[in-house]
Amino acid sequence: MEAVVVKNLVKTYGKEQTVAVDNVSFSVEQGELFGLIGPDGAGKTSIFRMLTTSLLPDGGSASVDGHDIVQDFRRIRSSVGYMPGKFSLYQDLTIEENLHFFATVFGTTIEENYHLIKDIYVQIEPFKNRRAGKLSGGMKQKLALCCALIHKPTTLFLDEPTTGVDPVSRKEFWEMLRRLKEQRITILVSTPYMDEASLCDRIALIQGGKILSIDTPQNIVNAYPDKLLAIKANEMYKLLKVLESHPGVINSYAFGEYAHATFHDTDTHALQAYLRGHGLTGVEVKGAEVTIEDTFIKLLH
Amino acid sequence: MKQFLAFVRKEFYHVLRDRRTLLILFGMPIAQILIFGFALTNEVKDSEILVVDYAKDNASQELLTRIGASRYFNIRQAALSHKEILGTFQKGKIKAVVVFPVNFNEDLLHHNKAQVQIITDASDVNTANMITNYLSSIIMDYQNQVNQNLEIPYRITPEVRMLYNPQLKGAHGFVPGVMALVLLLVSVMMTAISIVREKETGTMEILLVSPFKPVLVIFAKAFPYLALSLVNVTAILLLSVFVLDLPVKGSVALLFAESTLFIITCLALGIFISIETDSQQIAMLISLMGMLLPTMMFSGFLFPIENMPLPLQIISNIVPSKWFYIIVKSIMIKGLGISALWKETLILLGMTVFLLLVSLKSFKIRLQ
């Protein structure tokens, strides 16, 4: 069954009709962990807000759990869980008070759905009398997730839950999401971090309000059309310049300590000679494993 | 109902954990009452009066004792020339000078006519007027006593009675005024800020994606401030009775009922402001500028409305505090009951219902 169906959704802002979401369509299966991957300003938050009924679309339609986001917005509001990108709990209330408040607002109690949040809550429970404003970034996210989960939502919307969170907490957070999946909760998550994309069941790459590609992370990587090379030289900056001016280059960019590049003609020996001929030293060329980020850059060009 | 209580409890946490809010909420009313009660009074108390007595006879001494006995004046005596008198004014401490000419008693008894010179510092018009009035009435009093055995034909004696406030205490006018002012400011500003804060911090976004109904948000937001404002009313009344010696003549229960109504009017206004604004600063500015000034000007508390040009008089009718000021004044000082105040009460009630309906209608169930 499809938990979320989005058809030709459009959102524009202001008098200039700036397009934030441009004819977006996708659907999410029930129990799926679906990722919206894209840089800041790609339209992820707008999509989330429309799906959680706090924004009206300017075109197209969408439904969550079979309820229309415009007509049946009240039913959606009481059945989904939403965690906005900005930390939006009451900073002057303690962990426990925040959780209790949101449980009551949704007409439930902490005890009733404790099993859902238990794994996460035990980590912050030692600090339950601390005010939310005084928590670290990772703890804030855990608390926000608890608050979004406490009413046993059918679908969970997490808008950039790991932005501003340290790498260890990020990893933990994704492990929690995988465990939630076992509870058959549909999860839509957005993130600007490409490395997190591979942790989703399916992802949509999004840029400028348009979806570039939707598939499983593996398929998206497999669909990469060219042979990707990782190239290294002692002079990184010069290397990038030389690669850019190579007559057969399709794409080249810095990628960690290497430069990634694709060429029309993938003769690595010729390439090495070309680079050395341009005065580069310590040249190393090898085949690279394609990542989501490479696909994204490819799709952008 | 459980949701409502949880929300109310959360609101109380917000207020009680924020020192600044607490200070505004409870510090302001007490400070205002005390400031208006003791510092900003327009009564003439203990004014420095310089007496230059060239006569030094029975009549001048008798008059001097009378002036000195009044609690309005502190008397200092000095024998100064006319020039020196003007010099003392420039130092600024002396509010008035009373000069008895030589032969004051003689003139009074033998020529049936004597003169006393009163020189006042009219750079402060009100004080100068009031001092002259007080002094004149003391002198008239003395004159009447001297004349009491004489038959003067055609004499009109005004019999003045200062109704409701025989001692002409300044506190009578300002306690109702401060009450209107403080309740308005606290209620409007606090509710306006508290809803806008939810928008600013993003918690409104979460609340929107919840089964919460707008009505519930509005009432849950207003309720704690209603309770706290009633605490304020109690504090103001206690201060006015025990510190300022101003008892409540009418029914205290009625006073509380009317205060509750007025607080709800203000809360509705605050909610309306918060719905129409997006930042705490703007909400605060509108509440302060939009409420403080009209209340000061149009409630009749500082400037009598009857003296205003007609257009301003008409405008004053839409200021809720004007009606509340009339109500409080009538209950506290005149001791009137609801039968005399039903019109004002109905007007406040109408305003409240109108504002609440508009707020409910314009409450945004989505982000913009």
Description:
The complex is a heterodimer of chains A (301) and B (368). By secondary structure, chain A is α/β, with parallel strands linked by helices. In chain A, 33% of the residues lie in helices and 29% in strands. The relative contact order of chain A is 0.14. In chain B, strand 1, helix 3 and strand 2 form a beta-alpha-beta unit. Chain B has a four-stranded mixed β-sheet with strand order 2-1-3-4, covered by helices on one side. Chain B has two domains: 233 residues, no CATH class; 100 residues, abc type-2 transporter like domain (abc type-2 transporter like fold). Chains A and B meet through helix 2 and helix 3 of A and helix 1 and helix 8 of B.
CATH architecture assignment name of the largest domain in chain A: 3-Layer(aba) Sandwich
Total domain count of chain B:
2
Count up the helices of chain A. Answer: 10
Main sheet: strand order of chain B = 2-1-3-4
Strand/helix succession of chain A:
EEEHEEHEHHHEHEEEHEHEEHEH
Low-confidence stretches of chain A: none
Oligomeric state, counting identical vs distinct chains: heterodimer
Largest sheet of chain A: 6 strands, mixed
Determine the structural class of chain A based on helices, strands and strand pairing: alpha/beta
Terminus-to-terminus distance of chain A: 35 Å
The shape of chain B is elongated
Give the end-to-end Cα distance of chain B, rounded to a whole number of Å: 29 Å
How much of the residues of chain A is beta strand, in percent?
A: 25-35%
Radius of gyration of chain B: 28 Å
Helix-residue proportion of chain B: 55-70%
